[in-house]
Amino acid sequence: MEINNGRLAMFGIFxxxxxxxxxxxxxxxxxxxxxxGEPMAYFSSSDxxxxxxxxxxxIKISPYF
Length: 65
Prior knowledge:
mainly alpha; about 60 residues
């Protein structure tokens, strides 16, 4: 059952990414603003306009958690 929940979560995430890139996704088409950047790239300071991006870039994450 846990594997199915993970698959459903991945399906949802990629549906949102696809809809943001302008692809036809049933139920999501036209609800999201189009994103013209590379969705699989890391965030950078050149991705202006994304909410809370500056705060996320300021956070220093330890590789050891």
